[in-house]
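Figure 3 (text version): structure tokens given as input.
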């Protein structure tokens, strides 16, 4: 190791750290880390996002602190804006954009590119120059509790196609993207994060990137490359900063321009959600439109006994105190039922946990149509059991909407006759399903155009 002074060493080491903090303004802790310890990168979470004006003021203040402290480059300011299930900057601040598997379900990689461009435009407007995404894990394990719909597919070639288009989109707008997770988080039925055994401490995990794949870019991990590699690591950081964090004037947020941008992105998102909604199975019958596209029969509106079943809000995982439990979008039955009631105001709403009460069971029995929303029933035995129970009793009267992982009832064609997947439990994704059920949109492609496998078990309608 070269003989560095304490100040030079502090500068170098600080540039290799990415830190987070609490609050909507730059507190004393983050100021000290940037000023005294020369930290060169910051990551924002939901806990740092309050509104549009505040967020831009926060990123401006962080950059000003670094400039006043004499940093040679501006900060890298990063966030996890994967969209879909993991969305840090949410409506009404920014447009809800579709996540990875939703994009892949459209079977049009151009949607991935346009969504990445839109995401980068949003981040740039808020002074954020790096995104921790897209997710490049191949979700080969249907019971994966961590990745699931955050990945485009369980097929490596499909993942590669959509991820590469997203990278191009970020590159086009000028926001750095960070592909994750190395060496892979897709083939597991358990959370692989082990506090005492991070992959970044194992040279066998990092070495293939540098030596076999000849990757010369920045690797972001939970530890530093020390000793002889520090100068090389600093050089990689500076190269990235020179490209994506050039020093420029710090402006407040342009709210009219942000509103125009959000409106434009909402139109894009609406089109993509409509094209991604997948009818895996239908016993309701189909018709062919004048354009030759298959279409579900329109559900009846007011006057028909329809019951909507949705799971009660449950706990979800996430980074400790990051606010991620909010951005992973817990089930939102109030919004869901409101969307349904815009089509049929008489729909009865029942929230379920385990088994239904006798009174609720009678309401379901008496209904002409029952719409059941599930969230990851493939790893939730109570949701799965409830769905199969009512599938057996109701037959064609039951319509199941898998609001997250599409695997919930993929292998249960005998009992679940009508099965729709939307890939993420966001409001616009569910709105697209409601529109489809009540005849307001046509599905974007052949029914059953799933971006995941199990094709033999799927009874897609053609």
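Below: residues designed for each position.
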């Amino acid at each position: 190791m070269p003989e560095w002074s304490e100040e030079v060493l502090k500068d170098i080491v600080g540039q290799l750290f990415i830190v987070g903090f609490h609050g909507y303004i730059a507190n004393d802790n983050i100021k000290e880390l940037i000023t005294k310890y020369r930290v060169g990168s910051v990551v924002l979470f939901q806990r740092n996002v309050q509104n549009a004006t505040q967020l831009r003021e926060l990123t401006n203040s962080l950059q000003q602190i670094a400039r006043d402290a004499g940093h040679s480059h501006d900060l890298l300011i990063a966030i996890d804006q994967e969209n879909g299930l993991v969305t840090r900057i949410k409506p009404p601040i920014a447009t809800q954009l579709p996540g990875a598997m939703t994009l892949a379900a459209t079977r049009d990689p151009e949607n991935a590119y346009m969504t990445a461009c839109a995401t980068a435009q949003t981040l740039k407007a808020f002074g954020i120059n790096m995104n921790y995404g897209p997710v490049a894990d191949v979700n080969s394990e249907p019971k994966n509790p961590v990745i699931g719909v955050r990945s485009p597919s369980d097929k490596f070639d499909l993942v590669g196609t959509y991820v590469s288009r997203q990278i191009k989109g970020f590159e086009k707008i000028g926001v750095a993207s960070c592909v994750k997770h190395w060496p892979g988080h897709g083939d597991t039925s358990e959370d692989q994060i082990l506090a005492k055994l991070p992959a970044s401490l194992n040279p066998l995990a990092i070495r293939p990137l540098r030596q076999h794949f000849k990757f010369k870019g920045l690797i972001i991990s939970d530890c530093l490359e020390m000793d002889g590699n520090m100068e090389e690591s600093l050089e990689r950081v500076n190269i990235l900063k020179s490209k994506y964090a050039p020093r420029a004037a710090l402006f407040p947020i342009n709210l009219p321009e942000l509103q125009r941008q959000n409106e434009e992105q909402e139109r894009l998102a609406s089109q993509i959600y409509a094209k991604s909604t997948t009818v895996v199975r239908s016993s309701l019958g189909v018709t062919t439109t004048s354009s030759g596209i298959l279409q579900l029969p329109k559900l009846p509106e007011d006057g028909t006994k329809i019951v909507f079943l949705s799971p009660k809000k449950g706990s979800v995982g996430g980074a400790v105190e990051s606010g991620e439990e909010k951005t992973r979008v817990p089930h939102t039955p109030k919004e869901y039922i409101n969307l349904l009631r815009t089509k049929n105001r008489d729909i009865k709403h029942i929230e379920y946990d385990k088994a239904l009460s006798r009174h609720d069971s009678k309401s379901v029995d008496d209904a002409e149509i029952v719409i059941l929303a599930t969230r990851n029933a493939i790893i939730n035995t109570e949701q799965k059991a409830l769905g199969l129970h009512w599938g057996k009793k109701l037959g064609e009267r039951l319509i199941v909407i898998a609001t997250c992982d599409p695997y919930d009832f993929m292998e249960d064609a005998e009992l679940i006759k009508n099965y729709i997947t939307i890939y993420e439990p966001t409001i616009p994704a569910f709105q697209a399903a409601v529109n489809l059920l009540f005849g307001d949109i046509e599905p974007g492609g052949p029914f059953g155009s799933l971006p995941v496998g199990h094709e033999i078990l799927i009874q897609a309608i053609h």
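The two ends are 66 Å apart (CA to CA).
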